[in-house]
Design goal:
single chain; Rossmann fold; Alpha-Beta Plaits; 11 helices; disordered C terminus
């Protein structure tokens, strides 16, 4: 069974004057995917999100939402999207039920279906007990839930969430993450966030944008394999010899960090035992020999702090 493509972005460009905010971005979002969209401030992440949601016109390129061209048929395409901005668009002086009923009319849900739509959204977002309460009297976590409820009220195939857990306490964050994972089973989700552990806990795929270009795009499974270490950190009591370490079976390269510390890279088979034997044989005095595990934070920093954007894992 073919996976349904819900968002297709092709060669997206947007300039502010002569400054490129988005340059040649292309990607797809399939049903059942939760895409973590990362980038430092000023990278073009917000511009891309605004273009996808139809709030900003691209300089060039094409966006299709559930097969509908956003520029040719904007009203139809936008109807396929549920959107939660960083600041939830809630009216604090309305009750939850009043606000969601208002949103249902904006989404043009037929009157005889509104009650069912409201109850379904409230149930999915854990709002059943607070329908008659003023939104302004709810906690930040519940206000975020109301924001997500309005985004999914009309059962859109695509849900876009911008920083949905900012300002929440740890328990609220766990609840919102669980809700996002649940939504991801039937929708296509784009999650924009600065919280890297949130991506690893919630998303099935991750993209990083830097200086208007996609510099990283991989499934979470591929990312986990990438983060699996193929390097050893070695520390000895006495000065070590890089040339001798390079002769150890399985060691592909040696990077001296100082006279007593080195990073040893290897292929498929971990040569830790052979390295330890080499250290013992030469009397260097083994202090530490451990896998050098990379983190998503290190990947992010490596890709977004360099002078020239990289192109790791990005499909042409």
């Amino acid at each position: 069974m073919d996976t349904k493509i819900l968002i297709s972005v092709e060669q997206l460009y947007r300039y502010y004057g002569h400054t490129p905010a988005v340059e040649g971005i292309s990607f797809e979002l399939a049903q059942g995917e939760v895409l973590g969209f990362l980038g430092p401030n000023g990278a073009g992440k917000s511009t891309t999100m605004q273009i996808i949601t139809g709030n900003l016109a691209p300089g060039s390129g094409r966006v299709r939402i559930n097969g509908i061209d956003l520029l040719d048929e904007p009203r139809r395409a936008k109807a396929e999207i549920g959107y939660l901005p960083e600041q939830p668009p809630v009216y604090r002086d309305l009750t939850v039920d009043e606000y969601l009923a208002y949103c249902a009319s904006l989404h043009r849900i037929r009157k005889h279906k509104r009650s069912q739509a409201l109850n379904h959204a409230k149930e999915r977002c854990g709002l059943g007990a607070v329908g008659r309460r003023l939104i302004g009297n709810l906690s930040k976590g519940f206000q975020q839930r109301v924001g997500i409820a309005q985004a999914i009220l009309h059962s859109p195939p695509v849900v876009i969430l911008d920083e949905p857990t900012v300002g929440l306490d740890p328990n609220q964050i766990r609840e919102i993450r669980a809700l996002i994972r649940e939504l991801g089973e039937n929708h296509g989700i784009i999650l924009s966030t600065h919280i890297l552990p949130e991506v690893q806990a919630t998303c099935s795929r991750v993209q990083i944008i830097h200086r208007g270009k996609l510099v990283f795009s991989e499934s979470m499974q591929a990312l986990e394999q990438r983060l699996g270490s193929h390097a050893l950190l070695l520390e000895t009591r006495n000065a070590l010899d890089a040339d001798a370490l390079e002769q150890v079976d399985g060691v592909s390269s040696v990077e001296l960090l100082d006279s007593r510390r080195a990073r040893l890279r290897f292929g498929e088979d971990n040569p830790a035992e052979a390295v330890a034997a080499c250290v013992a044989e030469r009397g260097w005095g083994l202090l530490e020999l451990a896998l050098d595990r990379q983190t998503l934070e290190q990947v992010f920093v490596d890709l977004t702090c360099s002078d020239a954007p990289a192109s790791n894992g990005v499909a042409a």
